[in-house]
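Quick illustration, no need to memorize.
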Amino acid sequence: MNLRLILFSASMTALVGAGIGFGISKIERNPSQVLYRNHYIYQSLYARYFTVSGAIAGFLIGGGLQTIKELKEERDREMGIE
């Protein structure tokens, strides 16, 4: 298995997941729809929660899919299937 390719795929998917999580945090909590204001620390924590969650999910999904692809290619080489 190519560990570099797996880590690259996982990190790229983590960036995509972080972007999606950041976007969700901005869409989810529109200040004009909220009647009260939270302290800045809590607003920042709220945005980070979705961003980090998206990055972790993206890393796990990307790494898992690339690992499955690598294992399938290895199995196909062993069986002589091309």
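The longest helix spans residues 40-79.
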